[in-house]
Amino acid sequence: MAENRSKRWYKLDNAAKIIPGTTKGTNTRVFRIVCELNEEIDGSYLQSALEEALNEFPFFNCVLRKGLFWYYLEESDLHPVVKKDASAACGPLYFPGRRNLLYKVTYFGKRINLDMFHVLADGTGAFSFLRRIVINYIRLVHDLPIEERHDRSSNDEKADDAFRKYYQKGKSTGQIKGFLSTRAYHLKGPKDQNNECHLIEASVSSSAFLEIAHKHQTTVGIFLTSLMVASILDCMSFKDLKHPVSLSVPVNLRKYFPSITSRNFFGVIKIIFKAEDFNVTLEDIIKSVGRSFEEQLTEDRITNTMNSYSGLEHNVAVKIVPLFLKDLGIQGISTLTDTGVTASVSNIGVINLPESIRPYVKQFSAFMSSINMQLTVASYEDCLTFGFCSAFEESAVITSYIRRLTDMGLEVVVATNDHDRPLSETKGEENAVLPKVQSKNKRK
Predict the structure, then answer these.
(1) pLDDT tens-digit readout, 272-294
(2) Two domains, one topology: 9-144+158-164 and 170-438
(3) CB atoms < 10 A from the CB of 367, how many?
(4) Contact at 8 Å (CB) between 98 and 78?
């Protein structure tokens, strides 16, 4: 291959455009997705598995560059190296002016970690990448036949900008105005002085959680979101109730548009609940959250939400503004929209693997960095995993959420990076190990 070959470059998708300029503090815009196996990880096999996966997902090996008007992604010849995890989960991956990859694959014990800067992909796209790495790894370690061929989509289809493909001029919700219109309740407490994320992972039986959701006559997505609202209300004072609880909930747009892109392709709906007093039941919350889901997850609303992300690219006035001014404007808008959000809840959904691979995999989990708190939920086989990522040193909301799970009779297995332990005892490994501690709070 000639050394002077022109490198391919990609425009950022419309969800990614706002990300580089809004990274700050614990909100690194990096998420971690994890696959925990039933056996210890061999780093050499994992390196080979990653290299094979990149043949199918070459787009992820890009670096972020600055143009005069926009950021863009440029094809890179950088070689990713798998390492043992010894750094902060969801730590920064983008450093302005530095030419580096925007993802990393690490391992520790039985866990394979993929940390990724949100500019490259959303959770669905990143899970596709990790899924391929895991399949490759288990096949290599156990000398298994290739049961599942690579999917029929091409590399170009995986790198497709679905926002651009499905954009319809004139259809927009004015979503930013919607977020600015609410002064939401904000979580309180001291934040981590080192700007490191605090992770708590709670795992329950998927079938048992589904059964409880059905007893409440609702879906898993509505139920887990309602539990977050209830857990936040548990920690609010009477004075706090003048502000509503407002949750941002990402929506996978691939469910509404026929796209197989591995890049960002999501919208966000807003769940608002205002409690007039403390006499609010879980059933009241479920009904309110359910109505919000029903009203916002219609074809027209989803189309409008998708189009709202294309506003920057298709606004002629914005196009000609230099990048440094765009960044300042986006930072200002981001600060204002943060006032309208209490926390975020993201439901990745069910992760599927080929039948021959399943016995080797225990569970999947995910964590998204946040200026406040984000809950990300993933399901594999009969394991439903709640991944809490918090900017706070301690969080009564997470404690309340887990307590509510145990109060419903669920057995909860809790793992954490440094909660309930002095930092001095865990430095250097707390963000890699997430040591499993069987919950003692099982209640009938």
Answers:
(1) 999 877 788 999 999 999 999 99
(2) yes
(3) 28
(4) no
Residues 6+ apart with CB under 8 A from 136: 48, 49, 50, 52, 53
Full-model pTM = 0.88
CA–CA distance, 441 with 280 (Å, rounded to integer): 24
386-402: pLDDT as tens digits? 999 999 988 899 999 99
Four-way CATH pick for 170-438: 3.90.1150.10, 3.30.559.30, 3.30.379.10, 3.20.20.80: 3.30.559.30
Q: What are 186-237's pLDDT values in tens digits?
A: 999 898 888 888 999 999 999 999 999 999 999 999 999 999 999 999 999 9
Sign of CA dihedral 237, 238, 244, 249: positive
Any idea where the domains of the chain sit in the sequence?
9-144+158-164, 170-438
CATH number for the domain running over 9-144+158-164: 3.30.559.10
| Helix, strand, coil fractions of the chain, as percent rounded to 5 | 35, 25, 40
The CA distance from 110 to 402, in Å, is 24
What's the mean pLDDT in 312-329? 66
Structural contact between residues 47 and 112, judged by C-beta atoms closer than 8 angstroms: no
Residue 68, burial from CB neighbour count under 10 angstroms (0-12, 13-18, 19+): exposed
Q: Which residues sit opposite 62 in a β-bridge? A: 75
